[in-house]
Amino acid sequence: MNRQRSVIGFIVAGAIALLVIAIASFYWFFAKSPANLIASTSQPGAAIFVSKLSPAMVSLLANPDRLQALDREEELSKLKISLFAKSGIDYKEDIQPWLGNEITLAITTLDIDRDLENGQQPGYLLALATKQPEKSREFVELFFSKRALAGANLTVEQYKGVKLISDNQEEITKSKIQNPKSKIQNYLAGAVVGQGFVLFANDPKVLRDAINNVQAPDLNLTSSPEYQKATKELPKGGLAVAFLNLPIVAKWQGLELSEQLYNSQIISLALNPKGLLAETTFLTSSEIVPPSAPLSKPVGALQYIPASAGLAISGSNLSNLGDSDLTKLWRQATATIYGSGEDVVSRLAKPLADVQKRWGINLPEDIFSWVQGEYAIALLPEKEQTTPHWIFVVEKSESVEKGVTRLDAIASSNGLSISPLTIDQQKISAWTELTTATKKSDVKEGESFSIETKVRGLHTNLGNYEIFTSDLETMDKILTIKNNSIIDNLNFKDSIAAIPLPNQGYIYLDWTKSQNLLERQVPILKLAEVLGKPFFNNLRSLTVSSYGTDTRSLKGGVFFKLNNS
Q1: Which of 7, 5, 308 shows the shortest CA–CA distance to 147?
Q2: Residues near 512 by Cβ (< 8 Å), separated by ≥ 6?
Q3: C-alpha angle with apex 114: 108 to 118, nearest 5 degrees?
Q4: Distances, alpha carbon 470 to alpha carbons 176, 376, 502, 515, in Å
Q5: What is the pTM of this model?
Q6: Residues 6 or more apart from 469 whose CB is under 8 A from it?
Q7: How far is it, in rounded angstroms, from Cα 428 to Cα 430?
Q8: Rg of the Cα atoms in the chain
Q9: Cβ neighbours of residue 383 under 8 Å, at least 6 residues apart?
Q10: Whose CA is closest to 191, among 151, 155, 146?
């Protein structure tokens, strides 16, 4: 048996269990009252075991059994069974009696032995709160005795008053260095520390470091000024929280970021009567430059976005977007996750990227630069089309008039004609292209030619707004929108109601309408859907916004609305 895989599998399974339990609970919650699902604390107590140089820590701040009543389809029960089946542990008998109100998983170090020659081996620490220390000690000894019976070599040691139990197995593996056969030690270690926690790790050194962190408080995460500031942003009653040390996370991924503005990030998950709100705060030592002034209500441009939109983005002032810290955050985050920010941006915004390519324009310079007032951008997916229709609404101003004139000039330089049209007595300017089509003649041999007019884009003005669309059908929807705009959509109303005001605007994604489009543009999303099937099967929409007034942090939230909420 590959012991390293079993050890890593156990630790990673704990992380997956934590995330799946949290996600599942958020879905099944909505048939019940939220009163019984508020965490007793908003901060993880296990942070005292984690180094302040830890890349990441994630915690569930509620006992899984408090969520069990919501498990209408027994997904949590199946998860518990599968997680402990191979270990011979019975969750109900061996764990349930002592498990408390916190489960924390942390990556404690990027390399346990700090030896580059034998490869990078991260340290993993799993901390389980205990309400009955004696019973939890019995569990740890039972757990390792069963592993010993299965052939593991047990080691017991006392370290600073704490009993550490570990098993190990020497394993011959091919190394990257000259020695073709080098031996490595693979461990699983456990301990009960004080009256509060059961700890598991993938190496005894990780446990010893955890104990040192408690006894030398200046070493642990709670002593970090970044962490202290971040935890002040946590809402009360959150069910889960995660903290990321962003420079170390980037190092873990082997990345050298060209732009490192934000130092840390904290994320909290809390229940809302209408869904789930995930709030996050990015912290920096630099002054934050907001992309625009905060808005006290949704922008009026949304009144021209049909309720059928799959994606809607709204706010004010795009002129300084490229230099804002929000854009710098996007570059840093996408580079950390994907290794390159350009690839993911081009995929998610492919329809806009196609417009840039076809017209030979630069969106930030040729369009965003003159949008200083309200705006709304929307995509309308169609099942039979791979490319969705698009809408761009912008508040009129002198700079917008000049911008429209410039776009007309660009269209003309690309061989397009500016053709006037009228729909329902509304005057419209269309960018059109004449093309020829051939067909076999029914009268005589040879071919005949026909001329077709293709619309490449349209624009008109309504009220105080200039409106651009990709096609006539979409423009007609806008002109006949009446009480069927996105601001009349109950799902949209519920979603933005969960976002604090004032804010910087909204990114609203209707999952049921955009799922197929997103899966085509971001293939890895399908894997996420498999892992989080109960959640994605019931996801109705998600709404993103940024808000907050601190000049050294960027705060925002994502609201998830589910089908039965």
Answers
A1: 7
A2: 540, 541
A3: 115
A4: 55, 14, 32, 21
A5: 0.77
A6: 389, 390, 391, 392, 457, 458, 459, 475, 478
A7: 6
A8: 28
A9: 516
A10: 155
Residue 203, classed as helix, strand or coil, is: coil
**Torsion sign across C-alpha atoms 309, 472, 345, 504:** negative
Q: Which residues contact 402 (CB under 8 A, 6 or more apart)?
A: 370
DSSP output for 129-147: EES-HHHHHHHHHHHHHHH
Identify the residue whose tokens are 């040879």: 446
pLDDT digits (tens, 9 = 90+) for 446-464: 566 677 778 888 999 999 9
pLDDT for 64? 75
Residue 250 neighbours by CB distance under 10 Å:
18
Question: Is-contact 518 540, C-beta < 8 A?
Answer: no
Q: What are 431's two structure tokens?
A: 């960018």
Do 167 and 153 meet the contact criterion of CB atoms below 8 Å apart?
yes
What is the rounded average pLDDT of the residues 48-54?
Answer: 93
Give the separation between CA 202 and CA 205, rounded to whole angstroms: 9
Mean pLDDT of 355-378: 80
DSSP 30-49: GGS-GGGG--S-SS-GGGGG
Torsion of CA 474, 477, 481, 486, to 10 degrees: -40
